[in-house]
Amino acid sequence: MVNTWKAPAKHDVNAQVTRAKLEAERAAHVQELEKLRATLLELPEMSAEEGDPAVAERAQTLGMIEQIENQITEVERTLATLRRGGYGICEQCGKPIDAERLQILPETRLCVKCKSQLEKKTHHRTW
Ligand SMILES: [Zn+2]
């Protein structure tokens, strides 16, 4: 038996690990999404009644679904970058993103500086 396996370059190993991480993350999000959608189906229909706890619960669940859908989109975009090349480069300033940051947040596409600038502008999610 001929062993044709060659050790991939260090860069490729990292890309594979990152891809595996991102794919696991996406799978977890999808699972969560399915759970939330099932919860939503179980909730009683919207009632016009003021202060109906089901209304608040439904709104909250819808908000969570939207958030997870956004997260999935982010992860998929990052996976696309990984395939295309250029992963780990800030989309805003074109500088390499801190490796430590990438390890904690593999789906990030912005460096810390650009991200915080964006957050100041949008008052949006933090990561
Ligand atoms: Zn940047």
Structure in words:
Helix 1 runs antiparallel to helix 2. It is built from 4 helices and no strands. It is mainly α and 127 residues long. The structure holds zinc ion (ZN). Zinc ion binds next to helix 4. Residues 90, 92-93, 95, 110-111, 113-114 line the site of zinc ion (ZN).
Core attributes:
2 domains, binds zinc ion, Methane Monooxygenase Hydroxylase, Chain G, domain 1, mainly alpha, 127 residues, 4 helices
List the helices and strands and how they pair.
Layout lengths: L9 H33 L10 H32 L14 H6 L7 H11 L5
The structure holds zinc ion (ZN).
In short:
Helices cover 65% and strands 0% of the residues.
Tell me the fraction of residues in β-strands, as a range: under 5%
Largest sheet: none
Overall residue-averaged pLDDT value: 84
Summing up helix and strand content along with how strands pair, one would put the structural category as mainly alpha
Query: How many β-strands, per DSSP?
Result: 0
CATH architecture of the largest domain: Up-down Bundle
User: What overall form do the CA principal axes indicate?
Assistant: elongated
Total count of domains: 2
Helix content: 55-70%
Radius of gyration: 20 Å
Q: According to CATH, what is the class of the largest domain?
A: Mainly Alpha
